[in-house]
Specification:
Largest sheet: 5 strands, antiparallel
Low-confidence stretches: 46-50
Order of helices and strands: HEEHEEEHEEHHEHEEEHHHH
Protein name: Protein O-mannose kinase
CATH architecture of the largest domain: Orthogonal Bundle
Shape: globular
Catalytic activity: 3-O-[beta-D-GalNAc-(1->3)-beta-D-GlcNAc-(1->4)-alpha-D-Man]-L-Thr-[protein] + ATP = 3-O-[beta-D-GalNAc-(1->3)-beta-D-GlcNAc-(1->4)-(O-6-P-alpha-D-Man)]-Thr-[protein] + ADP + H(+)
Strand order of the largest sheet: 3-4-5-7-6
Structural class: alpha+beta
CATH topology of the largest domain: Transferase(Phosphotransferase), domain 1
Pfam family, one: PK_Tyr_Ser-Thr
Helix content: 40-55%
GO molecular function, one term: protein kinase activity
Number of helices: 10
CATH superfamily of the largest domain: Transferase(Phosphotransferase) domain 1
Subcellular location: Endoplasmic reticulum membrane
Strand content: 5-15%
Length: 353
């Protein structure tokens, strides 16, 4: 009689354990999906998935650092009086750039280099003012009379130094397929924003090679991407029959889109007036090459490339009309990120049980 309860307990124990395991598995899966939803929702909202940012100030104002109140863009007088140059950190065809200081904050002061390019400089300022958003470096002030622009400082610099930054011990934990794909998503988000901007469809013309593209973007301290250089953003207006041309010289190489090449062969000398214009699909052609840089050669990056193969093949269609929109590319990137995070996490949940 005393052995019988012991015998019954041994008979039903495996079934009870199986039931508990199944319940735990279901709870773990539901919890994982909830956390994944919250994480991706936070990522999309914090990384510029929307065009507005509650932390941004009204037009003509800015916030810097931990300051809660918005300040008006600095005027010529304020820049001359309150901003102190520290050192020159860069120079391009249009402007030279100085690391500077304003009220104990590091800032960036840009000044016109070549008076012949003042129209490009002023166009960049116009774009910077009009496109202030999560995607664009923060404008702090400007002086048109002195051809001066003041913007927020980002110590990690341009995307040219991404790989070097990721090899610094402090940032090695960021050197993963997951973080690199998120940077690529930031980049495509910016292209999508420019193609559907408040001003209309804008083409990123300063992009004739990979190095030039990378120089146009900044890496923030929390590992997001901002567009920094807006000097060459012509407008496509199909209803008015207006297309664009990126510069007045012949473009060569595989990085630029086929329609950006001189179409009449080597036997006909290049003439800008005869060069056919094109649209924003030139930006789409370049996305796979830029994303390939972002993904690098870390563990898992080849798996990401495999999942992106079809959309990247579509981006490389010779006919621009057959290429996807930036929104379609962005949607695919997001789906791949969600899928791979789920596939990566599920084996770990099973092992826990």
């Amino acid at each position: 009689m005393e052995r019988k309860p012991h015998f019954v307990r041994r008979e039903f124990l495996p079934r009870e354990v199986s039931s508990i395991s199944l319940t735990l598995l279901l709870v773990a899966v539901l919890l994982f999906n909830a956390l994944l939803y919250l994480y991706l929702n936070k990522f999309y909202s914090s990384s510029g998935r929307g065009e507005t940012d509650p932390s941004l100030c009204p037009f003509g104002y800015f916030k810097l650092g931990t300051v809660k109140n918005c300040s008006p863009w600095l005027s010529c007088e304020a820049i001359n009086r309150e901003v102190r140059k520290l050192k020159r950190v860069g120079e391009g065809a249009v402007k030279k750039v100085f690391l500077s200081e304003w009220k104990e904050n590091k800032v960036v002061l840009s000044q016109l280099t070549n008076p012949e390019l003042k129209e490009d400089f002023l166009h960049g300022l116009k774009m910077l003012k009009a496109l202030q958003s999560k995607h664009v470096v923060r404008l702090l002030g400007y002086c048109e009379q002195q051809f001066t622009i003041l913007t927020e400082y980002h110590p990690l610099g341009s995307l040219r130094g991404l790989n070097e930054t990721l090899h610094i011990p402090r940032y090695k934990g960021m050197n993963t397929w997951h973080r690199r794909l998120m940077l690529a998503i930031d980049y495509v988000s910016i292209i999508r924003y420019l193609h559907s901007s408040p001003l209309g469809t804008l083409v990123m013309c300063d992009s004739n090679d990979l190095d030039k593209v990378l120089s146009q973007y900044l890496l923030t301290s929390d590992f997001h991407v901002l567009v920094n250089d807006l000097d060459a953003l012509p407008l496509v207006n199909r209803s008015a029959g207006r297309l664009v041309k990126c510069g007045h010289r012949e473009l060569r190489g595989d990085f630029v889109a086929p329609e950006q090449h001189w179409p009449y062969g080597e036997e006909v000398p290049f003439e800008d007036d005869l060069m056919p214009p094109y649209d924003e699909k030139t930006d789409i052609w370049k996305i796979p090459d830029v994303s390939n840089f972002f993904l690098g050669h870390v563990e898992g990056s080849d798996i990401v490339r495999l999942h992106l193969f079809d959309i990247h093949a579509a981006c490389k269609k010779k006919n621009p009309a057959e290429r996807p929109s930036a929104q379609e590319v962005l949607d695919t990137y997001r789906k791949v990120l969600t899928l791979l995070i789920r596939e990566t996490a599920m084996p770990g949940i099973r092992e826990m049980l």
